[in-house]
Structure formats: C-alpha cells, structure tokens
Structure to design on (442 residues):
C-alpha cells in the first residue's frame, strides 16, 4: 500500500517509509568505498593513503549540494503541506539550476588550486603525485556529484524514495563494475578509480534530471520561473546545518590526517581511511533515516499537525537508540573482517586498523541521536539550531578532542576523540530538543 506524507505514521510505517532512504545512503556508502578497496588491494597502501588524504577536499565542495538538497526540500515539503504545489515545483526548479551554476564555478577554481591544497593537507613527496592524478579527474565529476546529492532529498519529498534508491543502485553498480574493469583488470591505477567514480556520478545525476522533466506521478516536476533569490537565501540558511556538517567533517578529517602523519605516518592515515570508509556505511543508516523522515516532519509542521509531530519525534528517538546499540555490537564483532577487506595484505596495518575501529564503534551508541536532532530542526525550518548542533558536533568538539586527547594518551587519544566529541554533542542535542518542544509542539 502506498504511503503518503499526510498519513499517520506508527513505528512500522515510519520505518517502511524511511527504508528506501536508508538503503540508498548505505548503498552510496558501499559504492563510495569500492574505490578504496580496489586502490588499496591493486595499487598499494601509499596511493590508498594519498586518495584518503585528498578526499576531504571534494567533500568540502560537495557540501553545497547537501545544503541545497536538505534546505530546499524542507521548504518544498512545507509548501506541499500547505497545499501550494505550484510554488513547490518552482522552488524545486530554482534550487536545481542555481546549484548547477555554483558547481561549475567551484569545479574550475578547485582544479586551479588542487596541488597547493594537497600540500596544505599534508601530502608528502610520495603521496602528492597520486593526490593530484586522482584529483584532476575526480573534480570533473563535481557538478554531477552535487546534483546527485541534491536529488537524494528531493526524491523523498516527491514521494518517490524507491525511485531514488533505484538511481543510487544503478550508479553504484556502474561504479563497482568500472572499478573492477579499470583498476582490477586493466590496471589503470588511481586514474581508473577516478574515472569509475565520475561515470557513476553522471548516472546518478542525469537520470533524475530527465525524470523530473518528463510527465510522471510524483509530487514534483520542473517548472521554470524567475529566480526567487529570497527563497534561495532561505534554502541556504535552512540547509546550513548540513553544509556545516559536511564542511566540518572534511576539515576535521584533514586535521586527523595531519595528527596521524605526526604520530604514525602514512600507515596511520591508511588506518583512519579504512575506519572512515566503514563508518560511512554505519552512519549512513542514521543519515538515511533522517533524510527519509525529514519530509514527513516538514509536511506535518506545515499542516500544523502537532499530535503527529509529537508522535514522529518520540518514535524517532527510540529508533535511533535501538539502531545505535545494534550497530555498535555488529561493528565491534565484524571489525577484523571489515579491516581485512581493505588492508588484509599488511598484518601490521590490519592490526592497527582493527584495534582503532573497535574503539571507534562505541560512538555509534549516541551518533544517531545527534544526526537525527540536527536533521529534525532543519525539517522544522530552524536552520540556526540545526547548524549550531552540527557545527559543535562535527567541528568544535572534534577539534578539542583530537588535539587534547593525544596530549594525554598519545596515539590512543586520536582513536578515542570521536567518542568524546559525540558524547559532548548528545548533551547539546538533547538540551536543544527539550528546550524547543513546547514551541514546535513535538
């Protein structure tokens, strides 16, 4: 039976609606790590460390796509909740073509300064050539990558989460096949992995654009109108938390890499890279749930349905707690297997990675609450609180911990830093949620 945004959502229905978004985010994470698996196993640990050192840079740029997607879809879903469908279509269209223009400018500028940025991020003489070779090609796909990120949110708002999942799976399969062909069979090295990625991103961007141009049964279609810069500004402000999150995560990853180069050299960067790849999969469950439920929250807030809003909030917090416990147990048990997929060829590196990841996994216990809390305020149209939670969680608390903990515990302190930052964040998140309950009625 088809689920509508206007429905009443019990726990089962809420999970059913969110599952396509969860699956989509998990699959994106899985196909995102395929480059790492093939580079590590077929090209070597120095190129693998180099690519991991470079990757925070395009993620900083791609954060604009997440910002427009989450901020714009929250506004669009609110228009739908108010019964203003034509206005929803116009806002959706405007956000898409403004993002396209921004992406082109950013890709050109990034290519011009690529080598200097890689040096600044800590690339040594061994790693720099691989960073630049991979990055030159990877940046060609920046615009489709940003567009793909945009439509992850809009497919849910359009009431077509399964279509979003289909596009993601198709893009992922394309990436996996081309990684196998270009890196595993034809031995094109880091260049092959970069080409595999940009081809898959083009698949993930072009199909949604064509879909929303053609007649179809979703809530949204492209409807060109004069640019509404006031609405674009609201989109930017409302999506600022996701922008802050992605920017902060990328900058923090750079700082982690700099600290690890200091304490452990390229092996430390490789171990951290493996942990981040695996973390993407587990955190994607939380992110997918947040993306999947945000349009429901936005719709019922726009419709002034406070009872349903309260029900959604209570159920979501419980789901995040249960998911966090389950994923912590699974990740701890699977740590040796997951590490071995990436670095099983190097016994010392695998031992370091497994040990570090088994410390890291305890962050999953509370990570979901923090991710959901930030997304929840975005869906309510309060980008300010959402951005504060995201900024402190992904940047301020992380910076404090990654510099302070090693001072007391050396290398071990770097691995414990994520637990410390998530622990600090959960107090901030719950304070913000409890303080604003009466105002929003959840």
């Amino acid at each position: 039976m088809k689920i509508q945004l206007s429905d009443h959502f019990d726990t089962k229905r809420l999970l059913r609606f969110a599952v396509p978004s969860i699956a989509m985010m998990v699959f994106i994470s899985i196909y995102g790590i395929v480059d790492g698996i093939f580079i590590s196993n077929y090209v070597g640990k120095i190129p693998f460390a180099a690519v991991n050192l470079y990757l925070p840079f395009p993620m900083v740029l791609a954060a604009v796509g997440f910002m427009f997607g989450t901020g714009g879809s929250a506004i669009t879903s609110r228009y739908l909740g108010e019964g203003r469908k034509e206005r929803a279509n116009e806002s959706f269209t405007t956000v898409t073509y403004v993002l396209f223009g921004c992406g082109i400018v950013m890709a050109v500028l990034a290519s011009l300064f690529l080598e200097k940025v890689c040096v600044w991020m800590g690339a040594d003489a061994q790693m720099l050539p691989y960073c630049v070779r991979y990055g030159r090609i990877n940046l060609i796909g920046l615009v489709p990558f940003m567009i793909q990120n945009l439509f992850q949110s809009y497919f849910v708002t359009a009431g077509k989460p399964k279509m979003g999942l289909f596009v993601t799976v198709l893009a992922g399969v394309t990436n996996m096949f081309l990684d196998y062909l270009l890196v595993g069979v034809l031995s094109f090295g880091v260049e092959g992995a970069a080409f595999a990625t940009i081809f898959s991103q083009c698949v993930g961007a072009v199909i949604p654009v064509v879909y929303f141009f053609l007649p179809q049964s979703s809530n949204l279609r492209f409807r060109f109108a004069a640019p509404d810069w006031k609405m674009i500004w609201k989109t930017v402000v409302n999506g600022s938390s996701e922008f802050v999150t992605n920017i902060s995560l990328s900058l923090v990853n750079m700082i982690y890499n700099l600290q690890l180069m200091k304490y452990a050299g390229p092996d430390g960067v490789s171990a951290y890279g493996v942990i981040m790849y695996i973390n993407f999969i587990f955190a994607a469950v939380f992110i997918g749930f947040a993306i999947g439920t945000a349009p429901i929250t936005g719709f019922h807030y726009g419709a002034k349905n406070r009872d349903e809003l309260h029900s959604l909030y209570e159920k979501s917090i419980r789901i995040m707690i249960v998911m966090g416990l389950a994923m912590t147990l699974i990740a701890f048990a699977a740590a040796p297997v997951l590490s071995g997929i990436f670095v099983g060829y190097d016994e010392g590196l695998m031992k370091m990675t497994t040990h570090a990841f088994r410390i890291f996994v305890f962050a999953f216990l509370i990570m979901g609450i923090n991710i959901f809390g930030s997304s929840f305020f975005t869906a309510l149209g309060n980008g300010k609180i959402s951005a504060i939670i995201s900024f402190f969680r992904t940047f301020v608390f992380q910076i404090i911990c990654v510099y302070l903990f090693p001072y007391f515990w050396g290398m071990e302190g770097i691995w414990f830093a994520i637990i410390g930052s998530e622990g600090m964040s959960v107090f901030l998140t719950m304070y913000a949620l409890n303080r604003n309950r009466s105002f929003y009625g959840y």
Remarks:
- DSSP finds 18 helices and no strands in the chain.
- Residues 11-440 form one domain.
- The first helix runs from residue 11 to 43.
- The chain has a mean pLDDT of 89.
